[in-house]
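Query structure, 290 tokens:
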């Protein structure tokens, strides 16, 4: 399965919500990151066919997606989904089964997995209501799944469960694409195969997560004195991002790190080398896109 977006533009009032957006992805999970107002929700609505474009084109496996022709086999879960007043959890499944290829057994499985009570949705907390709608979205037989702000308000255990289910379904051997927007950087970097960074209606960066992480290390150091970036670079280290707070230094780099030389020349009080923090990765993507 292949999703292609070509020079997509959409104006909402005085705001250019999408401004010449172009990218293409194949089977897997695409995570969309960006500040409020970056254009994430508008892009998802355009991908679903809820919004028509002012110019440009969107296609799935060569079939054009538009307001009149949404993608076949797709399902869009908006940030604030509609549900009839007074509906309980069981009724949600009945309601959705009228409109989509809905797997009742799968829904029962996800409800049990998330330990959701059968009570009225209006009485759920925001996080529980989000879980209920994610359970319903996973129960639809869709190979093109669009989730807007999918992880907001979810506790860590639920994030892991949902992330595992999405990874098993869309990072496996079966064709399919899921597009997820979220402010949860950690969750997206954990499950996404590709990350797209948006800002002011434009694509700042789109990167394959495996290639982005390849050989990347985060180094944390503490010194008895202030140490500048140029001293780190003098050791033959090339920081991709760099942060200094007083006598503490953190940076991302690729390749080997001359630890013995660093200890001899700079004499840090402590240092550690670990996998990069997703927030640091987001900062790196932002800097590369400038």
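Result returned for the query:
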């Amino acid at each position: 399965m292949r999703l292609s977006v070509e020079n997509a533009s959409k104006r909402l009032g005085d705001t250019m919500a999408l401004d010449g957006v172009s990218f293409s992805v194949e089977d897997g999970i695409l995570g969309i990151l960006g500040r409020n107002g970056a254009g994430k929700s508008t892009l998802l609505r355009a991908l679903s066919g809820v919004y028509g474009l002012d110019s440009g084109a969107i296609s799935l496996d060569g079939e054009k997606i538009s307001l009149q022709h949404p993608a076949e086999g797709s399902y869009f879960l908006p940030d604030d989904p509609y549900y009839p007043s007074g509906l309980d959890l069981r009724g949600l499944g009945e309601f959705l089964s009228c409109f989509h290829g809905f797997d009742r057994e799968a829904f029962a499985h996800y409800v049990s997995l998330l330990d959701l009570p059968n009570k009225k949705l209006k009485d759920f907390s925001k996080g529980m209501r989000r879980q209920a709608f994610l359970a319903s979205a996973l129960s639809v037989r869709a190979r093109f799944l669009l989730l807007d702000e999918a992880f907001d308000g979810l506790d860590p255990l639920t994030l892991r469960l949902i992330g595992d289910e999405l990874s098993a379904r869309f990072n496996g051997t079966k064709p399919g694409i899921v597009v997820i927007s979220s402010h949860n950087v950690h969750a997206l970097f954990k499950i996404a195969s590709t990350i797209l960074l948006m800002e002011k209606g434009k694509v700042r960066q789109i990167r394959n997560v495996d290639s982005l992480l390849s050989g990347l290390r985060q180094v944390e150091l503490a010194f008895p004195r202030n140490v500048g970036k140029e001293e780190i670079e003098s050791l033959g280290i090339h920081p991709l991002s760099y942060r200094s707070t007083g006598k503490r230094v953190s940076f991302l780099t690729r390749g080997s790190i001359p630890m013995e030389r660093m200890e001899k020349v700079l004499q840090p009080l402590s240092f550690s080398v670990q996998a990069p923090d997703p927030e640091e990765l987001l900062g790196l993507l932002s800097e590369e896109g400038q």
